[in-house]
Design goal:
By secondary structure, the protein is α+β, with helices and mostly antiparallel strands. It has 14 helices and 13 strands. The strands form 5 sheets. The protein has a 5-stranded antiparallel sheet, with helices on both faces. A two-stranded parallel ribbon has the order 1-2. A two-stranded parallel sheet has the order 3-4.
Length: 392
């Protein structure tokens, strides 16, 4: 194995840019085994974890060789407990072909996933107090030939996503139990309208349900993963530097500068929606029929953010992504979308237009599987005075 496989090592302090460099390596034809840390710096905030999930999905789809996760863990269930508490860990342990221990011995999947069983069972029945960490919450929808929890969550009624009011009730319940520790729910409620958060998640979750479960021909994928992550982080200036990496984009530099210059805005609410399907662009291009050149690709992506337009036939949808942009703009947040060889990146500073333009779209050298949408919302601590007035 050592002669055939090169180790693809992921460090705890990966940045978006360092992960992009690893995407490029996946296209070289080299056979890789994957090594992951038990946890990521600042819980993989500001889109780092969802970028890692997309890298894992791309690795799984590239090449016909056996996909091996060579863990740092000992061959015991207890050793895998921490990595089971992350979405990237669940993704890897569930979808790889083989798992090996730190010493290279094969590990049964069932044993490695033992630490995730209670989490998944609790999620299925909506017992959120026993799911994930206090400020980290994920909903994985996984389908493989031998494992299927695609609709096993309170966000579904049968095979359909529940309506917006029912979804809102579930989000509030999550925040009460997980981000609500030590009064965190009341603190968060003073910073962001829960309805805004729920509507944003609902729209994006519906989007990946509609577009992340089938190929360009409309056939359902036998193996796919999609879901969402919510996490609240207290970001430091040092972490913003790590996140930007050595070669940050102009958008990332602007975000770092904007957040560093505003001492009161030291909380961020991270929201990630992801799938390992055919990819946003391929699905849209099939309907639009645009050319595959850079100009055509940008035109196809802009179509997705056009109010009233939908890829789905006979759909009365088409305003969902417009609503998402309006919400991000309201909280002066940051958006990153990664699909195929396309990245959309925008910081919504005060006075900016709540729209995506051609200037916000870049064509990269490397391609990825599926689509990831990451949103970071700046949320300000608010002090409620005795008179009922609020002050930032």
């Amino acid at each position: 194995m050592d002669q055939l496989y090169k180790s693809l090592d992921i460090k705890r302090g990966e940045s978006l840019n360092s992960l992009e460099e690893k995407y490029k390596g996946l296209l070289s034809g080299q056979q890789y085994k994957l090594r992951l840390p038990s946890s990521l710096h600042s819980a993989g905030g500001l889109g780092v974890e969802v970028a890692l999930i997309q890298l894992i999905g791309t690795w799984l789809r590239v090449g016909e060789y056996t996909k091996i996760f060579h863990s740092h863990q000992d061959p015991t269930a207890d050793a895998f407990e921490e990595i089971c508490l992350s979405m990237y860990g669940l993704t890897t342990l569930t979808l790889v072909d083989e798992i090996t221990s730190a010493s290279g011995d094969k590990v049964p999947k069932g044993m490695a996933l033992q630490g995730a069983i209670n989490t998944m069972e609790s999620l299925k029945i909506g017992d959120y107090e026993k799911c994930f960490r206090s400020r980290y919450f994920g909903v994985p929808c996984i389908k493989t030939p031998t494992y299927d929890n695609e609709f096993h969550a309170p966000f579904y009624n049968g095979e359909n996503i529940i309506d917006s009011d029912a979804f809102y009730k579930q989000i509030v319940k999550i925040l009460e139990n997980k981000i609500g520790e030590k009064g965190r729910k009341s603190t968060l409620k003073s910073m962001i309208d829960f309805r805004d958060l729920s509507e944003l998640l609902w729209e994006l979750f519906k989007n990946t349900h509609d577009h992340g479960r089938e190929d360009t021909l409309g056939d359902f994928l036998p193996l796919n993963l999609r879901g969402f992550l919510i996490q609240q982080n207290d970001l430091t200036k040092d972490y913003l530097d790590i996140w930007c990496g050595e070669t940050p984009s102009i958008t990332q530099q602007n975000l770092r500068k904007n957040w560093k210059n505003n001492e009161s805005k030291n909380f961020v609410l991270d929201i990630s929606i992801f799938d390992l399907g055919s990819g946003f662009f391929d699905l849209v291009q099939t309907k639009t029929g645009v050319d595959a050149n850079d100009k055509g690709r940008k035109a196809a992506i802009l179509k997705c953010f056009e109010e009233g337009w939908s890829r789905l036939p006979k759909s009365n949808r088409g305003s969902g992504l417009t609503k998402v942009l309006q919400c991000i703009n309201k909280y002066h947040g940051w958006l990153k979308v990664r699909t195929d060889n396309i990245v959309i990146e925008k910081t919504f500073v005060e006075g900016d237009s709540p729209f995506i333009t051609e200037n916000d779209i870049n064509i990269l050298d490397s391609k990825v599987v599926g689509t990831s949408i990451h949103i970071s919302l700046r949320i300000n601590p608010v002090e409620i005075t005795a008179s009922g007035e609020s002050h930032v």
